[in-house]
C-alpha cells in the first residue's frame, strides 16, 4: 500500500522537531514543508484550520494537529522502534510526563520570555525541573533508548539552554540538575536528534531578535 506522509513545520519550532525526530527514529519516509509563520501557506491553514499552527501532520490526506497527539498516532501506526513503553502503566506515566512538560514547563518559559523581571518564572521552572530530575532513572527517560518523554523534552534539552543564554538567567545548571544536564547533552548529540534539530547558533540567531519584541512562540 502506497503511503503519503507530510509534515508542515517550522525549523525553529521544538514542536515541529518532535514530529521530525519521531519519524526519523522510526525510519518513516515523509515530505517536509517548512512554513513561514508570518505568511502561512494555504496547505497549513487547510490541514490545521482550528489552531492554524505548526506542526500539521498528514497521513494519506488525513490531518492531525498538536505534537503530542501526532506522536501517539505515529507510534500506533508504525510499530518499529517504539517510542512508548509496552507496559500499560508505564505508557500512562509517559503520557503524564509529556503533558507535564507542555502544561507546566512550556507556559512558564513563555511567561519568562515576555517579561523583564523573570525571577518568579525562573523559580517556577526550576521547581518543575526538580520533578524531571527525580524521574530520570537512566540515560534517557525512555531507558537506554530515546522515548516519547525525551522527544517531548526537547524543549528542555535544546531550547531551554538557548533561552537561558538570551534572557540572562540560570535555570538548568549542572550544579543543581546534574542528571538533566547530562541527559540534555546525550539527547542533543544523538545522531538522529542532530539530524532533525537546528543548530544552537541558528536558534540563537532566530530567537535573539524576537526577545526585543517580547513575543513568545505559540506553536504546539
Q: Summary?
A:
The chain is an alpha+beta fold.
Secondary structure: elements and pairs:
Layout: E1 5-9, H1 14-26, E2 31-34, H2 42-47, E3 56-59, E4 62-65, H3 67-77, H4 88-113, H5 119-135, H6 148-152, H7 154-167, H8 178-188, H9 191-196, H10 200-211
Parallel strand pairs: 1-2
Antiparallel strand pairs: 1-3, 3-4
Helix pairs in contact: 1-3, 1-7, 4-5, 4-7, 7-8, 7-10
Report on this structure.
The protein is of the alpha+beta class. 55% of the residues lie in helices and 8% in strands. It contains ten helices and four strands; from the N terminus they run E-H-E-H-E-E-H-H-H-H-H-H-H-H. A four-stranded mixed β-sheet has the order 2-1-3-4. Helix 1 (14-26) runs parallel beside helix 3, helix 4 packs parallel to helix 7 and helix 7 (154-167) packs across helix 10. The mean pLDDT is 95.
Q: What composes the largest sheet?
A: 4 strands, mixed
Order of adjacent strands in the largest pleated sheet: 2-1-3-4
Number of helices: 10
Helicity level: 55-70%
Query: Span between N and C termini?
Result: 31 Å
Shape: globular
The value of Rg in angstroms is: 17 Å
Secondary-structure element sequence?
Answer: EHEHEEHHHHHHHH
Beta-strand residue percentage: 5-15%
Q: Give the uncertain stretches in residue-range form.
A: none
Q: Which structural class do the helices and strands define?
A: alpha+beta
Mean pLDDT across every amino acid position: 95
| Beta strands, count | 4
Amino acid at each position: 500500500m502506497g503511503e503519503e506522509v507530510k509534515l508542515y513545520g517550522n525549523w525553529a519550532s521544538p514542536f515541529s522537531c518532535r514530529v521530525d525526530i519521531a519519524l526519523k527514529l522510526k525510519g518513516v519516509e515523509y515530505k517536509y514543508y517548512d512554513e513561514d509563520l508570518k505568511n502561512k501557506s494555504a496547505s497549513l491553514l487547510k490541514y490545521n484550520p482550528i489552531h492554524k499552527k505548526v506542526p500539521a501532520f498528514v497521513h494519506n490526506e488525513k490531518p492531525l494537529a498538536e505534537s503530542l497527539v501526532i506522536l501517539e498516532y505515529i507510534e500506533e501506526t508504525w510499530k518499529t522502534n517504539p517510542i512508548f513503553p509496552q507496559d500499560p502503566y508505564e505508557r500512562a506515566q509517559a503520557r503524564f510526563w509529556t503533558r507535564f512538560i507542555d502544561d507546566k514547563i512550556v507556559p512558564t518559559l513563555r511567561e519568562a520570555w515576555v517579561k523583564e523581571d523573570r525571577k518568579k518564572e525562573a523559580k517556577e521552572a526550576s521547581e518543575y525541573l526538580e520533578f524531571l530530575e527525580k524521574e530520570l532513572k537512566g540515560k534517557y527517560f525512555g531507558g537506554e533508548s530515546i522515548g516519547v518523554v525525551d522527544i517531548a523534552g526537547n524543549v528542555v534539552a535544546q531550547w531551554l539552554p538557548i533561552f537561558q543564554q538570551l534572557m540572562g538567567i540560570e535555570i538548568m545548571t549542572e550544579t543543581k540538575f546534574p542528571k538533566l544536564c547530562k541527559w540534555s547533552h546525550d539527547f542533543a548529540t544523538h545522531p538522529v536528534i542532530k539530524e532533525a534539530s537546528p543548530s544552537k547558533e541558528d536558534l540563537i540567531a532566530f530567537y535573539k531578535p524576537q526577545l526585543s519584541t517580547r513575543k513568545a512562540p505559540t506553536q504546539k
